[in-house]
């Protein structure tokens, strides 16, 4: 009599590392899938060329999420955080965000600033859960179909950092 091999369910190990130029193709594919108004490849390329300290989260050698950011004076400017749609809701953006806090704090930043479309409810919920607060609006900032929509400007202080969620952080 034959027995079927036992199946062991292992948590998928995630690795966070600096974004590299060779990630560009994967970023552009995820960007197209995840965003209603995706960045063009040239914008991602420009951020890579300017050597922003951006990060990616990998599982089994493939990029599944990324965060693009830059430092200006004592502020970290978060420009893009994205998780591939089929893996959203599993805490990957949150892991990336916590890594961004650590890197930013080490680099001497005092806060994280971002702008988000007022219609982007998932992102607004995500940022609020991460402790961001609305500090202003930029009227008609983003193009939307034939019209424009406001940007919500949000800020989070880096004075107090929550404990890092699970995940292997690689510098
Ligand atoms: C916003 C985004 C990055 C979140 O990524 P994610 O990996 O799914 O986020 P997490 O799993 O870490 O979510 C953490 C928390 O964010 C909130 N959140 C995330 N997705 C949400 C959704 N669709 N609706 C409501 N809240 C959501 C929840 O509070 C969640 O906590 P919970 O799971 O305990 O409820 C993702 O939805 C995305 O890539 N969206 C498209 C790109 C985009 O708009 N990026 C932001 C502007 S650049």
Q: Note the run of SSEs as H and E.
A: EHHEEEHEHEEE
Q: What is the spatial order of strands in the main beta sheet?
A: 6-7-5-4-3-2-1-8
How many helices in DSSP terms? 4
Q: What ligand species are in this complex?
A: coenzyme A
How far from one another are the termini?
50 Å
Main pleated sheet: 8 strands, mixed
Categorize the overall geometry.
globular
Helix content: 25-40%
Spans where pLDDT lies below 50 across 5 or more residues: none
Query: What is the residue-averaged pLDDT?
Result: 91
Function: Acetylates the N-terminal alanine of ribosomal protein bS18.
Subcellular location: Cytoplasm
Pfam families: Acetyltransf_1 (PF00583)
InterPro entries: AcTrfase_RimI/Ard1 (IPR006464), Acyl_CoA_acyltransferase (IPR016181), GNAT_dom (IPR000182), RimI (IPR043690), YpeA/RimI_acetyltransf (IPR050680)
